[in-house]
């Protein structure tokens, strides 16, 4: 044995929290190991390795691994402002008076006795303000200053906030308005600025302050004022700059020269050298007239350069050419702090090998020679490990062993001792953690057992394991990690082994199932026409896992064979566990492991929640893996025996030319029908073309109808709806082609089994390519016939093929198939649309959603009490991790204590987002990925366009022909806003002659030419327009007290000729009645009258705009209404409902709703918004093709709404929620985005991060809250438990103290009941009340309506009134009464504000505004208080029942208040 001297005594400690703070200049000097004076000192050997010397001059270490580096310090040539506090200093200076250095006050102040104190400061007093105007302090944003040999240079491309400037406010005295500002300032105006050895200047309005001058002003301030900025005054200025260790800035190249190693320096080292150079050369400029200001500017510029060269910032400085994609240092933070290095890992291309077991991974032998496993030797495993180590010595001569804390070499067998830690090579059976980046879902991490194979350069896995890794065998790589501790191996075995994650937690389907070749073979084997001879059946039977006798053949004798025959279903039944019983929809029946019937499809074989193998895993657990493995072996052997080959004959559906031609004719007829449906849909939802529908009988060519020849009139929503209709008809074409395919078609066999391909791709190969949709628009217009001759003719006629504004460049229909060949134009169109539909444009969206979801949900887990909590502050997210509506739960997926349910939910949604990349992305189809992103944003909306409502049409319209189409146009016509300007084509002002002045008119006549076509579409008549113009203009004049001139509006024949007739317009004339002596008649008409007339609302509502008719994916028409700037966001839906009262019967109000979560929250509350969010998230993921379990959806919804309202999945939304929850996690925020900004803000506030999050704990060596390390506290009082003698329950109840307590409770309840009945009888008598001699009445049913937990409104008021009287002042109410008061607060108009951060307790107090009256006082969780009146709660509850009842209760309460005041 040989002992190695490789031991390093590493410090051992437990990290509990991180405190962020800023260093002062004195702190920098204390912590530094070297003072940097010369440029070469920046890489001084005292700063650690690497450097030019062979060892560190501070600690003497010779290896970078042993030396963490040491800090240095640069003493600045001039004291400068701390860049992190310069904004706060400016704000503080603006709050104080520069003369007396106290807080600014509004002139003179008053004493307590009412006498006035005259301000003595000339800057504060009213008299002095005339000569001494106020001063404003600002940050001076200047170009970066650099030094040269002769002068100062300013780099204008880089701007830094480096100086503070004092500027006189732009206000002069009344007596000096005509003088310049500097001429009005007194000589001693700038005396508050200390002398900087410069001649005094009083004739300036602004001055740049040096750091010395600012320091002189601040040192006289009250320390309490400075504490508002920072608790340490010395942090406001810098006189030193720390220098980071060499290991952070210097890299040693792998090769060097004879005089030493070759070193490479980063940008920070260069910035430090320039900083030292400035300090050395600054003395040459002391003769500058403003040396102090310029010196601080130069030094500040270099300081900012050093700070911004940090790796937490971008590679390029602000203002320079930012070509780097790393805008912030999150990547560096991830690589340096979050990443954990492991020497026992590998990365290799994966290949498929069906002979490898499902729970194994084949590793090449040359890989295993470099992978080490550590094992602790004990008496329990001594023989086993000793045998493994002996095998290791056969491969290598040396075995590394740690004994008594020291590393030794073992060269002989049987030298191990109990207590040793042996480092042996990887062998068969060792666990390996495998994943394929990116790990987008929970099951992308699987622990597999190693199996050493004599292969090279590639690892092998079973093809059935491809689905969990989301990979295939086209060059995908796998990453493997060998665990080194017993704890990690046990954790991998119990958590992520394949036998412990059989079911997918996303939707409950099986994690591994039949796929590719095995799935195609299973589909063929279970078909009705498959028969096996005895030799074939017995050959396949040998591969079955279960040992059983050969069953009785299905066919004893047949005409085509010499012996009995067995069906494929019999063989497949032998692969199933005995006693298995399944029955699916009368299509699949398995009884006692025997397959009786099965459907022709392969749905029950594919991987879904109700498939055969999903049920098998749920019933048989780990044993099902053995059945699946043997099934794969049998199916692969069956496929080898029967064969499955694909050739061109599979694409030629018919061998004869006649049948082929007939199929082509049917395909063209189907395409004609689809295009006709496309055009009909355009007419149905296009209001311009609706008259054509009345005369269409099905035989006319709609392309030649009026208004349809020019596609530019068709909007994008109309094209989207038409595309949906085209696809629905095109699906019939797919079914027709499928019917013509023969049963022995190999390609269709793979499609039907779900193994490979799709029916759409097959039809494109054999029949027609079909509809082509580009990403945005084609770069040229599409001719009616897709041929080169037609295209050339079209270019000759139009002479413009680059115009992309037409609608006809948004889609194309290719009638040819790939088998027939495409002409050049068709090939070009297909290439453009195929390339545009790739996901490259939105490839970063799933990754962004994954980061945000994990950041928001990863710290949510199931606590020991069964609740779902967040690790930050232990806030409750859910009271129990369960599904709603009695949904079935699987015990294996049930949340146990410590389960990371937040990470599970985030992974489920993230995997769906990555799956959405397979869907096409273009302008004419809704992208599921973009829809998912919009659902998760659930943002409030920055402008009015973000608020929309969806109106669904009533189902009763279905019985009418085109009922939905006409109803949607009716709703749109009713709501759409039509201004007079929408109808006007031309506005002209003509001179009418001098005769007009005799009639008190105006010689200027205004002509409004209106479009008759638009008037027809908007259903407006000329008389109605004139009447509305006159009425609304007169109303406007009354509102402005006749400030607008009177007008005369007429509907008369236009006096300018036949232009109106030629242009199909009509004319409205207007004469403005202005005084004849007015000199600006024409200006009044143009600037005041005409804009008011054009803004006149003729029809619809001002609160709405962009009213559109849209078609859903299920071809249902809806009306989408947008909010205008004239409507408040919180009142949008209520305004829309009131506007739709005249057309109420056309709308289905059960389904109509606002489109966004925020609008639903404002209209119906958080409960409705929560339900809508869950349903929207479910429907969006279903559209992607992922059936996500409801538990995950509920966790996402509850986490986003835990604060009482929805916060979107964005950086702003996450910040708002964490602020509301009082969560401080600087490290976690820095790992998410902008690490420099997060760390600086945390240091300025002296924040403490307790590392409560999962990522924080793992990064710094703490145990995370998830798993078995969650918080579990036992409270012990310190007193021993004393046993008491058993007591009879009846004796206890007869105790006098107990009986007295119960009697008091019953008496209190009886008194309340009697008071309730008396007051109810007084107020309920015939529903009438007398107030001041008058009588008011209310409907009796309103008085009897139930209110919350009370029977009626009278009971509620009586209960609260009695409670207020029974308690004494400052007495805290009981928990039962507290819950009743919280229920009453729900009806308070400001109940949400009263509750605030949560109610801790409620007591009886005195109303601050009325000292003689009582009220309830709420004590919140944040130690704040609020008072509330129970009368407002009662009034709010009455208004919730009926406005009539609300006014009734309000009059009663006001009458009683008047009488009590009179008394």
From TrEMBL:
<keyword id="KW-0548">Nucleotidyltransferase</keyword>
<dbReference type="Pfam" id="PF11523">
    <property type="entry name" value="DUF3223"/>
</dbReference>
<dbReference type="GO" id="GO:0006351">
    <property type="term" value="P:DNA-templated transcription"/>
</dbReference>
<dbReference type="Pfam" id="PF04983">
    <property type="entry name" value="RNA_pol_Rpb1_3"/>
</dbReference>
<dbReference type="Pfam" id="PF00623">
    <property type="entry name" value="RNA_pol_Rpb1_2"/>
</dbReference>
<dbReference type="GO" id="GO:0003677">
    <property type="term" value="F:DNA binding"/>
</dbReference>
<dbReference type="GO" id="GO:0000428">
    <property type="term" value="C:DNA-directed RNA polymerase complex"/>
</dbReference>
<dbReference type="GO" id="GO:0003899">
    <property type="term" value="F:DNA-directed RNA polymerase activity"/>
</dbReference>
<dbReference type="GO" id="GO:0009536">
    <property type="term" value="C:plastid"/>
</dbReference>
<dbReference type="InterPro" id="IPR042102">
    <property type="entry name" value="RNA_pol_Rpb1_3_sf"/>
</dbReference>
<comment type="function">
    <text>DNA-dependent RNA polymerase catalyzes the transcription of DNA into RNA using the four ribonucleoside triphosphates as substrates.</text>
</comment>
<dbReference type="InterPro" id="IPR007080">
    <property type="entry name" value="RNA_pol_Rpb1_1"/>
</dbReference>
<dbReference type="InterPro" id="IPR038120">
    <property type="entry name" value="Rpb1_funnel_sf"/>
</dbReference>
<keyword id="KW-0808">Transferase</keyword>
<comment type="similarity">
    <text>Belongs to the RNA polymerase beta' chain family.</text>
</comment>
<keyword id="KW-0804">Transcription</keyword>
<dbReference type="InterPro" id="IPR045867">
    <property type="entry name" value="DNA-dir_RpoC_beta_prime"/>
</dbReference>
<dbReference type="Pfam" id="PF05000">
    <property type="entry name" value="RNA_pol_Rpb1_4"/>
</dbReference>
<protein>
    <recommendedName>
        <fullName>DNA-directed RNA polymerase subunit</fullName>
        <ecNumber>2.7.7.6</ecNumber>
    </recommendedName>
</protein>
<dbReference type="InterPro" id="IPR044893">
    <property type="entry name" value="RNA_pol_Rpb1_clamp_domain"/>
</dbReference>
<dbReference type="InterPro" id="IPR007066">
    <property type="entry name" value="RNA_pol_Rpb1_3"/>
</dbReference>
<keyword id="KW-0862">Zinc</keyword>
<dbReference type="InterPro" id="IPR000722">
    <property type="entry name" value="RNA_pol_asu"/>
</dbReference>
<dbReference type="Pfam" id="PF04997">
    <property type="entry name" value="RNA_pol_Rpb1_1"/>
</dbReference>
<dbReference type="InterPro" id="IPR006592">
    <property type="entry name" value="RNA_pol_N"/>
</dbReference>
<dbReference type="InterPro" id="IPR040403">
    <property type="entry name" value="NRPD1_N"/>
</dbReference>
<keyword id="KW-0240">DNA-directed RNA polymerase</keyword>
<dbReference type="InterPro" id="IPR007083">
    <property type="entry name" value="RNA_pol_Rpb1_4"/>
</dbReference>
<feature type="domain" description="RNA polymerase N-terminal">
    <location>
        <begin position="234"/>
        <end position="526"/>
    </location>
</feature>
